[in-house]
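Example (one chain per record):
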Amino acid sequence: MPLIETQVQENAVLVQAVCGARDPEEAADSLKELLRLADTAGITTVGQVTQRRIKPDGATMIGEGKVEELREAIVNTNANTVIFDNELNAFQQYNLAKALDARIIDRTELILLIFSRRARSAEAQIQVKLAQQELLLSRIPITESQQRFTGGGANVRGPGEAHLQIRNRPIRKRITELKRQLDDIRARAERSREKRKFPEVCLVGYTNAGKSTLLNQLSGADAYVDDRLFATLDTKTRLLWLAPSRKVLLTDTVGFIRHLPTSLVASFRSTLDVAIHADLLLLVVDASHPHLREHIDVCRKTLAQIGAQNVPALLVLNKCDAENADETVAHLSESEPLAIPVSARTGYGLDALKSAIAEELKKASPLWQAPSAVFPE
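Predicted structure:
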């Protein structure tokens, strides 16, 4: 069963099927990211298995031969968990668990496990529960007898269907209730947003790009910072002074990551709504990362997914003081000439960033000239 917490130390073998024309370098970086996600979840990685395929195997994702190799790796490393970098369906997960006698989770479930442990606010906890229930609904184990009656076509109804509907009913009821709670939260947030007196700047970006550190440096906040993926899920808003006579709201949000499922984005819609209604976005990425371009693309695609693609945005290249950052930024300068290099750790470039924020808000925010946002010098 997915998403079940355990007190037993988990030792995992990571598995990745590289299918079709997927870029090998991107796949390798994704596997490294999966290792970091496992570490963030408190799971020890004891082995890795990779496979290049034309297309995924319908029954096990990796095929019978690779399953046998994976079984040997589990025995040799005393692993009790297998984590796939690929998204599994219920049928594949069932077959793998039966063949390997180990806990089988995929990238989506691993992210949700981290989210469940990191959520602190009531809103974040509800969003995590919703995502868990929706995933559970799609991953309820299928018995062998029911397998014979599933997947037979759009108009085929098998004997197991009524039973599945009855079994799923409590989960669907729970999903409806959680969505209602989130709708209430969104409605309250909307009423509060209508009353705000200051322009709002929202920090968005790839996970572990340093958004919380940047929030702390710009506003003097004390947001939790950790060198791990998804260090925090909870939205934080602080006042930021721009020049002696101006202040704006600065809000930090949950980070983005490649292959973030649509259902997970939908569950966190109430948190991400702040980006849709912001006057300005600061799209923060790690300037030293070798796949910086891809991270920017992931962030922009996620913003488009939530409907925030037309919100004015500044690209912020954080960690520009790190090793190899100069070379990476130089490669990006032609396609992103307006990107702002900063170091939230040292404070480099923050004055230039504040000036750029002020210039953008002059053009983008009707609240910039509001009397409530201006204070005597």
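Caption: Strands lie at 11-19, 44-53, 81-84, 103-106, 200-205, 236-241, 247-252, 280-286, 313-318, 340-341.
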